[in-house]
Amino acid sequence: MADTTGKAKKTTATEPESVLSRRRLLGTAGAVGAGGLLAGGLAGAAGATAARDDVAPLSGVGSAALPFHGPHQAGIADPAQAHGHLLAFDLAPGADRKAAAALLRRWSATAAELTAGKAPKGDGTGIALDAGPSSLTVTFGFGRTFFDRTGLTARRPAALEPLPAFTQDALDPKRSDGDLWVQIGADDALVAFHALRLLQKQAAGTARLRWQMTGFNRAPGATERPLTGRNLMGQIDGTNNPKPSDRDFDARVFVPRDHEGADAWMAGGSYAVVRRIRMLLDSWDNLSQERQERVIGRRKSDGAPLSGGTETTPVDLDKVNPDGTLAIAGDAHIRVAAPASNRGAAMLRRAYSYHDGFRDDGAPDAGLLFVAWQADPMKGFVPVQRKLDRGDGLSRFLRHEASGLFAVPGGCEEGEYVGQRLLEG
């Protein structure tokens, strides 16, 4: 359970002069300072009108943009944003390959405009009227059943075989799987919802929403300096995540660009395993901090491994305490999940926390929207989850309640759409 700590380069969107509506004027309040806010307050309505007539710059968070086009889809190697939506669609009865291609063409065009900070033609929702792109990413994938329903079974990747059953699973089929999968992330909640709303409207008549989940992370600038995120258990989560700067990052996360065969269309793509993992927070919070740290294998305060050092110090799985016990317990999460314990198996984990209210017994319905990226799920997620399923002390405090596996093709160039090599190849 972790999110990515790699830092993707962000660019500033170029805003057309005619699209003043895409500027987030209020986002500059922090730059104006207390004195400016006070002056604005005293100016009253006239001052507010004047401010809206000015061309004010967006804040750094609002103006940050990630390109939609490229060799890989955005939203994979980029840091997880503050707000996220995961959703799956099923093709409507009668929707065929041609209809699916038309939908992906519409979706890709809309996503390209939104991620550049532009208002799509004909959009009158006004949901993100004053906002910049806010690091928006939109990522598309295909579920196993998509290939049957579009007559493309012969081109379905072998890596898209159903995930095996795990003993800790309590999966709800209504919130699992799906023909089409979409991941939306942004550092502004309205920007993320705007994308969600437009894509859902554009699917009408072609695909029907199967399930949707909403998550969050720490907001940019909430800490004095960039830090690894924490999950709802209060644990620093993501320290040992693969980083784009790692020599073998691409080999672990992306299908090789020279990939051949019936699924050659997956070259440059990746496979996403999606899990809704509810945390038993009431039970977890009843543990002492010392016990929580032993379950994880790290100090809660700073994320340092119990074998010593700082957060980024390599874990010493062989270290023994003066009393003869292992510094990192045999069932500690970081031991069981470590690549060294799984013959080098690793994946890029890019998660969002979620809170969907409270259950009938008063316990919070909260946890992790876990998304794991890898070049081959049978070599990444599956062996690691099997090991966790058998021997992870943390599993006593988790419930896996939804699951899905999706083939996420490589990116597209301008004038193309995601999945074009599959649907028109």
Automatic annotation (TrEMBL):
It is an enzyme of class 1 (oxidoreductase). Residues 295-315 are annotated as: Disordered. It is found in: Cell envelope. InterPro entries: Dimeric_a/b-barrel, Dyp_perox_C, Dyp_perox_N, Dyp_peroxidase, EfeB/EfeN, TAT_signal. It catalyses: heme b + 2 H(+) = protoporphyrin IX + Fe(2+). Involved in the recovery of exogenous heme iron. Extracts iron from heme while preserving the protoporphyrin ring intact. This is Deferrochelatase. It comes from Streptomyces caatingaensis.
